[in-house]
Amino acid sequence: MKQLQSTLDQIVSSLKGALGDNLYSCCVYGSAVRGDAIEGVSDINLLILLNDSNPEAHVAIGKAIGKDPQIDPFILGRKGFERSVRAFAPKFVSIRRNYRVVFGADPLKEIKVEPELERFLCEQALRNLRLRLAHAFITREQSRRYPFVLARCCTPLLLRLSEVLRLNGRELAREMPARIPMLAQEFGIEEALLRDLVAFKRNPQKLSDQEMVAWHKRLFPAVDKALAWVEAKWPA
Questions:
Q1: Has residue 231 got a pLDDT over 90?
Q2: d(CA 79, CA 67)
Q3: Strand partners for 71
Q4: For residues 106 and 25, is the Cβ–Cβ distance under 8 A?
Q5: Which string of DSSP letters, residue by residue, matches 99-121?
Q6: Which strands form 23-29's sheet, in the order they lie side by side?
Q7: Cβ(103)–Cβ(26) under 8 Å?
Q8: Fewer CB atoms < 10 Å away: N or C end of the chain?
Q9: Residues spanned by the domain of 129
């Protein structure tokens, strides 16, 4: 925790030096706040809110933190922020559950999201994930990106499944690994698949074509099961 705080202090110092008065707020969110971050693997998720999001500011942010592969910035401007909250409603609701302001004002304190909009966008995110998995698998011989997409889909999938259950009134464990048994049982997904996906995220590796086929035959139907659950429980 001390190492994380030291890293955050360095990040904030770099951003303040690069952006000056244009830096309105900076929040850390996700696993670093939940307490289940994997050292050297998990991203440091940052919501960076600028008084004016413009190319010059983006250049400055890139110079300040862009070389650190562990930092995953989510950059927005104050102008249009409320509309961004609506456009990314599930993401903001998820951020709000586990976040901490590390500089400036708290931009999330007053946000409100209509449940109907959140359900729609949560389903949309699951369908987008399904499309990305299919595309990465079908084009695997051209792009060689399937293992990368596989590792990167772990957190979004677990978060979206969690949000679906929350929107249906279910209480979930704070830490992600503790949610896996409930997610597997509720959606009829193999628990070992979710645990294997987490393990692959921790230690991504090259896969043979046979291994990619095996992964896809396990994972794609699991996403389909989640969407079938949504279609059955939520009105169109």
A1: yes
A2: 27
A3: 44
A4: yes
A5: EEEEEE--TTTT----HHHHHHH
A6: 71-77, 44-50, 23-29, 99-104
A7: yes
A8: C
A9: 115-233
Closest CA to 95 of 76, 116, 69: 76
Name the DSSP letter for residue 51: S
44-50 and 99-104 as β-strands: parallel, antiparallel, unpaired?
unpaired
Give the pLDDT band of residue 4 (cuts 50, 70, 90). confident
CA-to-CA distance for 86 and 122, rounded, in angstroms? 12
d(CA 25, CA 156): 24
Q: Is 103 exposed, middle or buried (0-12, 13-18, 19+ CB in 10 A)?
A: buried
Reduce the DSSP state of residue 44 to 3 states and report it: strand
pLDDT tens string 108-136? 998 888 888 889 989 999 999 999 999 99
For the segment 188-196, the average pLDDT, to the nearest whole number, is 97
Please classify residue 185 by burial: count the beta carbons closer than 10 Å to its beta carbon, then call 0-12 exposed, 13-18 middle and 19+ buried.
exposed
pTM for the model stands at 0.70
Q: Between the CA of residue 64 and those of 2, 15, 71, what are the distances in Å?
A: 21, 6, 11
Domain count, the chain: 2
Residue 109 falls inside a structural domain: no
Q: Give the number of other CB atoms < 10 A from CB of residue 68.
A: 14
Is residue 143 located within the same domain as residue 90? no
| 123 and 197 share one domain | yes
Contacts of 68 (CB under 8 A, 6+ apart): none
Of the CA atoms within 13 Å of residue 87, those in its CB half-sphere come to: 6
Beta strands (DSSP E) in 14-161 are 23-29, 44-50, 71-77, 99-104
